[in-house]
């Protein structure tokens, strides 16, 4: 049985990116997995009026143009569904993730596709699966009062049905912080 990992990266940096390097390290520990990479730093369009109109149109009534508008969103959702495991690597930028992460969230939160409304509130439609979120930061430690990323990311995955979420942080950019994160990731990978 193949094990599909969806790897999502968000740092604007490639050279010297702590979050991407920790992601490499983590995924290297799963040599038998098939990895699909979605690099948010390459750009994710923001949703717009056309996009919202298309999602509010029942699938069978969508025009060719509306289907085209939703093509990337459909692809991003398909990646989530196909994954047995998700690895998200991101830096903290200005107290949250880079804007491309929010653009990705807006693309994948789809009523009737990744969640549905019920009489008792919204229900996630995806199968639960492990999500490991690796966060690099400067002065802001994960879970500190000015970390506005962690709770949001956890809620987004919970909202679409994924509750098995683990966050690992490396703050300060020091060797000690990176080593601690690596040790934590090795335990998770085992
Ligand atoms: C535009 C920008 C904004 C940043 N904002 C924050 C921040 O709000 N809090 C923080 O702790 N670090 C912040 N940092 C530092 C980065 O989170 C840190 O350098 C991290 O290692 C970057 O991830 P990377 O090494 O994977 O590229 C910021 C860095 C950049 C370039």
UniProtKB/TrEMBL annotation:
Residues 4-182 form the Flavodoxin-like fold domain. InterPro entries: Flavodoxin_fold, Flavoprotein-like_sf, FMN-dep_NADH:Q_OxRdtase_AzoR1, NADH:quinone_OxRdtase_FMN_depd. Binds 1 FMN per subunit. GO terms for molecular function: electron transfer activity; FMN binding; oxidoreductase activity, acting on NAD(P)H as acceptor; oxidoreductase activity, acting on NAD(P)H, quinone or similar compound as acceptor. FMN binds at residues 11, 17-19, 136-139. SUPFAM superfamilies: Flavoproteins (SSF52218). It catalyses: N,N-dimethyl-1,4-phenylenediamine + anthranilate + 2 NAD(+) = 2-(4-dimethylaminophenyl)diazenylbenzoate + 2 NADH + 2 H(+); 2 a quinone + NADH + H(+) = 2 a 1,4-benzosemiquinone + NAD(+). Keywords: Flavoprotein, FMN, NAD, Oxidoreductase. Homodimer. Belongs to the azoreductase type 1 family. This is FMN dependent NADH:quinone oxidoreductase. It comes from Falsihalocynthiibacter arcticus.
């Amino acid at each position: 049985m193949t094990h599909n990992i969806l790897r999502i990266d968000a740092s604007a940096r490639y050279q010297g990116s702590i979050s991407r390097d920790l992601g490499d390290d983590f995924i290297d520990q799963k040599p038998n997995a098939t990895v699909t990479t979605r690099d948010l730093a390459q750009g994710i369009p923001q949703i717009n009026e056309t996009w919202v109109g298309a999602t509010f149109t029942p699938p069978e009534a969508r025009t060719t143009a509306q289907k085209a508008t939703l093509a990337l969103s459909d692809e991003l959702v398909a990646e989530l569904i196909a994954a047995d495991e998700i690895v998200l690597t991101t830096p903290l930028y200005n107290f949250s993730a880079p804007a491309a992460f929010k653009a990705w969230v807006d693309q994948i939160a789809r009523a009737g596709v990744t969640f549905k409304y019920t009489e008792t509130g919204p229900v996630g439609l995806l199968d639960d699966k492990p999500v490991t979120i690796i966060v690099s930061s400067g002065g802001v430690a994960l879970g500190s009062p000015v970390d506005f990323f962690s709770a949001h990311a956890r809620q987004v995955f919970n909202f679409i049905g994924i509750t098995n979420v683990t966050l690992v942080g490396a703050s300060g950019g020091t060797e000690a912080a990176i080593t601690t994160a690596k040790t934590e990731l090795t335990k998770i990978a085992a």
